[in-house]
Amino acid sequence: GETDGHTASIYFVDSEQTWVGELTPVKVQPLAKTSSQFDMFDIYCDETLVVRDERANSKLVGIRG
After folding, report:
1. Of 14, 22, 40, 55, which is most buried, counting CB atoms within 10 Å of its CB?
2. How much of the chain exceeds pLDDT 70, in percent?
3. What HEC string does 1-61 produce?
């Protein structure tokens, strides 16, 4: 089966019908300094996979190598 670890799957994606959409812009937040040698920061962003037409994508399962 698909979860037994002995087979693989391939996804075929139409990039005109499926893309990554940005929900909120990238935000860079500096963290408290713990060293004078370098600065640390967190990067936040919210993205989601947008599928305009699910029929444009498919999955081939059960590939044995």
Report:
1. 14
2. 94
3. CCCCCCCEEEEECCCCCEEEEEEEEEEEEECCCCCCCCCCEEEEEEEEEEECCHHHCEEEE
